[in-house]
Amino acid sequence: MELSLEEIAGKYQLSLAAVYAAIAFYYDYRQEIDQAIAQAAALALSDRLNHPSLLQSKLDAMRNYA
Questions:
Q1: What is the 3-state secondary structure (H, E, C) of 1-66?
Q2: What span, in angstroms and rounded, lies between the C-alpha atoms of 47 and 31?
């Protein structure tokens, strides 16, 4: 669901100027921000694959046992 800038300002109790400033900053640094988000997502995925959740392993074992 897309929100207007006015709706975002209201939802998060921000001034409309602050929301416009954030959008302007994003557009000025879009490539760097998108790259940082992609790197963080890749790191999170790698971490999940290399360090599986003990709880998830136990839940999977219980499901396979039943």
A1: CCCCHHHHHHHCCCCHHHHHHHHHHHHHCHHHHHHHHHHHHHHHHHHHHHCCCHHHHHHHHHHHHC
A2: 24
Total residues belonging to the chain: 66
Q: How far apart are CA 17 and CA 61, in angstroms?
A: 52
* pLDDT tens track for 15-63: 999 999 999 999 999 999 999 999 999 999 999 889 888 998 889 889 8
